[in-house]
Amino acid sequence: QVQLVESGGGLVQAGGSLRLSCVASGTIFYINTMGWYRQAPGKQRELVAAIASGDSTNYADSVKGRFTISRDNAKNTVYLQMNSLKPEDTAVYYCNVKGATIVGYREIWGQGTLVTVSS
Q1: For residue 113, what are the contacts with CB-CB under 8 A and spacing of at least 6?
Q2: Out of 26-30, 57-61, 88-92, 106-110, least confident range
Q3: Which tens digit of pLDDT belongs to each residue from 36-81?
């Protein structure tokens, strides 16, 4: 069974930076897309950034130029560097991985890590 373990969330002042990490553990034969989503109170979960196996990236318009997603395939890890944080970035951030596991192709979610940006 594949599990995702996220770290790096916390409280930061506006304008500050945080780096989120997500490690996929367990038997996963191939990871296609790795990404980060977020969900603020009272809002739907939304895509923040994603990175495909060929390293092509996709960002929400609201984070372009401030956030950078990257991956280390040898470590089955995806990172999200968040700079120039704003109060509206406050949310629970979820790691998402799509790949081939023992039981077939699956989409897997992490448990979430809270990011709070104070004004």
Answers
A1: 6, 7, 8, 9, 20, 92, 93
A2: 26-30
A3: 999 999 999 999 999 999 999 999 999 999 999 999 999 999 999 9
Instruction: Give every strand in the sheet of 18-25, ordered side by side.
Output: 3-7, 18-25, 77-82, 67-72
